[in-house]
Amino acid sequence: MMETDIAVGSGLKLTCSRDELVGRLTTVARAVSTRSAVQVLLGVLLRAEDGRLELAATDMELSLRASLPAEVEAEGAVVVPGRLLVDLVRLLPAAEVSLEHRADEGSLRIECGPASYRLNTYSAEDFPRLPELEALQTFPVERRALLETVSRVARSASRDESRPVLTGILVRFESGKLVMAATDSYRLSVKETPLTGAGPELEAIVPARALVELGRSAGGGETLELGVLENQVVFRTEGVTLTTRRIDGQFPNVQQLLPDAFEHEVALPRGEFLDAVRRTAVMVQRNSPLRLRFAEGELTVSAQTQDVGESRESLPVAFSGEPLEIGFNAEFLRDGVDSVSGDELVLKLISPLRPAVIQASGDASWSYLIMPIRLAG
Amino acid sequence: MAHLDLDAFFAAVEELERPELRDRPLVVGGDPHGRGVVATANYVARRYGIHSAMSSAEALRRCPQAVFVSPRKSAYSTYSQDVWRAVRDVVPLVERTGMDEGYLELAAAEGNFMRARELAEAVQVAVRAATSLSCSLGVAPSKVVAKIASDRRKPGGITVVPAGKEADFLAPLPIRRLPGVGPKSAARLEARGLTTVGALAALSDPDLRALLPGKYGALLRDRARGIDPRPLELSGETVSISHEETFARDIVEQGRLAEEVGRMASAVAERLQERRWCARTVTTKVRYADFSIRSRSTTLPVGTDDPERLAQVACSLLERALADRPGALRLVGVGASGFEPYRQLGLLEDG
User: Fold this and answer.
1) C-alpha span between B99 and B80 (Å, rounded)
2) What pLDDT digit, counting tens, does each position of B11-52 carry?
3) Domain boundaries along the sequence of chain B
4) pLDDT over 50 at A3, yes or no
5) Count helices and strands in chain A by DSSP H and E runs
6) What is the pLDDT of residues A201-234, one digit of tens each?
7) Which of A136, A168, A239, A358 has the smallest number of CB atoms closer than 10 Å to its CB?
8) Considering B14, B95, B101, B260, which one is annotated as catalytic?
9) Ramachandran angles phi, psi of B277, nearest 5°
10) Averaged pLDDT score across all residues of chain A
11) From the list A288, A331, A353, which residue is nearest B345 (CB)?
């Protein structure tokens, strides 16, 4: 990997548009580490070069870069505290901003109309080297397809750092389609999205956080550029570049986890069922289970927390056979029902201790598998 | 209900582990040549007037031949867990108020004090069989009376105070024995000639208000009369389960530390499974060579009782602690809390 040279000691000096600076900086600052013990990761790297001001931030898991045109008087690089810079730039009074790094006094001077600031800086030398992207080969990917697929699975990803693989989303481009899957081991979301053009051949586990961030920072445009660089995945859109590390490891075998036969397939109106789940879940505390009891023609949703109280609500459903009672984590069930597109969903069940699957009626392109809670007694 | 109090608990554990100390005056506590205090003294030492909270230096003065040992909390905690497991086998509903004391729900024997005594005896036998430790119990209709009663015939005694006899039982006791009467209130009461619990119980409203104004006075007089509406707090019964060990030699190698943490996580998981609980919060505690302690916790979205999962989380917390401050460790511990009586099934579990 080539590494970026940074001229040390020279002080950058430039003038640029306040609005452009605010726009780019707000995007890039999302990658600023929020609780790092490493001071420089709390900063944004500013680099003036070739008539542009480049901004970069990273928390070591994901990095964001963007640039804007600037009138560069002197090239150079410096790191300034990210949050502080965002806060003050937003308030600047005039349309033009000038920045000057005074290496000798270790500060960045910001002048804008009548306002002036002096910010203490960090050394650009200490800033992590970000991957050099000049030679990167990228593929165009339909932006909407990518982001929509992320949004249908991201909620199932784990936030638990002790199982790194599960904090990622499995991203796989196959011929004519994009498949993503995420699981925290209690539920699993899988989404297949058809692609119009030919996509790249690629399979990677990408941190869910980075993909969700991509949705926030990838403005408009039809396509995104996607590239892979050793252990990094790179997304580029309209002047913003997001890089994130690939997660090493073996993602659980999704096909094996999805049951292929069920005892019951119950159709439910999405809106009414979601409301019933929400209302009933009010009585859920300390992860007590939400109970679904299916009997001839009726579903009863109930919850009970010891020393707190209980809730109960019934709705008519097309169910026949022996009654079946199954418990779920209320939040997991709500996430699943909420993520259904369309007015009707199908809840597929085997038995109280086996996985259940939620899909939109007549559409198998998205599945939400949810493991039950074992009910006492 | 009943109050159970282990007899000279720390000292009894030391005697069990070092039988040669059994007939000698034994003091568990701080350094008698420094500023330590007595945690517990065995019954031999008590004959010299040594008692808890006395300075160790004073204890040494009273009994120069006494053996002093420093407290080993982790050993006591292991014994304590065995004690309470044995108690629960006889009486399932228990409010532990300390390592060596707690209240037992004897609702099964309500109103039948012969039956209550039998239960208390069964508890004593179970505790002795499981741990060789001796305990005393007080059986009474309320917490305050049960607690005082458990202290009445130590060691190894059972005192039953039937309903209606509470005030009579309490009346002759010195005022300072009533839980809730601190040195200040005691001094104030004694200055007015009120030296017994019975005298406090007999105070009229105006006298009580003059002496001990506010709600607290009324509460203390109620207790002096044996009236104590506090129920057993069963939900807060066990807030955490933990396992920790001090190593024979400090360990610096991370792989070995992870192994130890894994072993302790398994022990914690086993105890969770015994109770059919899952825990949401996992804590790893480390003690460095210089005795400073650090602990790191995390709360999972879903409780677990799985030893591997607990080990995984506990090890990542260990790594976090060591990243903040590397160094050799003399102790590691794994704790679990935030219990829930449900078991969220996992997709990736075996079976």
Assistant:
1) 6
2) 999 998 888 888 899 999 988 887 788 999 999 999 999 988
3) 2-6+74-160, 10-71, 166-224, 241-350
4) no
5) 7, 26
6) 889 999 999 999 998 876 677 888 899 888 899 9
7) A239
8) B101
9) -115, 155
10) 90
11) A353
Assign B145 to helix, strand or coil.
helix
pLDDT of A138 higher than 90: no
Q: Is A292 exposed, middle or buried (0-12, 13-18, 19+ CB in 10 A)?
A: buried
Which portions of chain B are predicted below pLDDT 70?
234-238, 350-351
Angstrom CA distances, B326 to A80, A193, B329, stand at: 29, 47, 9
Order of strands, sheet of A373-374, starting from the edge strand that comes earlier in the sequence:
A309-316, A298-305, A290-295, A324-328, A373-374, B343-344
The predicted structure's pLDDT at residue A235: 93
Write down the residue that tokens 């992320």 correspond to: A150
Asked if B119 reaches chain A (Cβ–Cβ under 8 Å), the answer is no
Q: Compute the distance between CA of residue A187 and CA of residue A178 in angstroms, rounded to an integer.
A: 20
Rounded CA Rg of chain A: 25
Closest CA to A53 of A103, A12, A2, A85: A12
CB count within 10 Å of CB A306 equals: 11
Question: Which chain B residues are closer than 8 Å to A183 by Cβ?
Answer: 347-348
Nearest to B348 among A252, A288, A374 (CB): A252
Strands A223-229, A202-207: parallel, antiparallel or unpaired by DSSP? unpaired
Please say if B101 is a catalytic residue. Answer: yes
Q: Are B342 and A289 within 8 A, CB to CB?
A: yes
CATH class of the structural domain B10-71? alpha beta
Mean pLDDT for the stretch of residues A124-134? 87
Scan for tokens 């997709």, then name that residue. Answer: B347
Superfamily of the domain at B2-6+74-160: Reverse transcriptase/Diguanylate cyclase domain (3.30.70.270)
The structural architecture, per CATH, of the domain B241-350 is 2-Layer Sandwich (3.30)
| Under 8 Å between Cβ of A367 and A190 | yes
Per-residue pLDDT at A4 exceeds 70: no
- Please state the rounded mean pLDDT for residues A161-166: 88
Contact A188 B301 (CB under 8 A): no
The tokens 């059972």 sit on which residue? B158
Hey, is the C-beta of B273 within 8 angstroms of any chain A C-beta? no
Percent of chain A with pLDDT over 90: 71
| Other CB atoms within 10 A of residue B254 CB | 14
pLDDT at B289: 87
Q: Do A162 and B315 touch (CB under 8 A)?
A: yes
Q: How confident is the model at residue A336 (pLDDT cuts 50, 70, 90)?
A: very high
Q: Does B300 touch chain A (CB under 8 A)?
A: yes
CB pair distance less than 8 Å for B301 and A160:
yes
pLDDT per position as a tens digit, A51-82: 999 999 998 889 999 999 999 999 999 999 99
Superfamily of domain B166-224 in the CATH hierarchy? 5' to 3' exonuclease, C-terminal subdomain (1.10.150.20)
A166 has a pLDDT exceeding 90: yes
Q: What 8-state DSSP symbol labels residue B239?
A: -
Give the residue from B309, B345, B349 with the most A CB atoms within 10 Å of its CB, the best one to mutate: B345
Q: How far is A59 from chain B (nearest CA, A)?
A: 17
* Closest residue in B to A253 (Cα–Cα): B348
Structure tokens at B136: 């005393």
The span from the CA of B290 to the CA of A9, in Å, is: 43
Average pLDDT, integer, range A330-348: 95
What was the pLDDT predicted at B78? 81
Structure token pair of residue A329? 């984590």
Distance (Å) from the C-alpha of residue B249 to the closest C-alpha of chain A?
Answer: 28
C-beta atoms of A287 and B340 within 8 A: yes
| Cα gap B125→B104, rounded to integer Å | 15
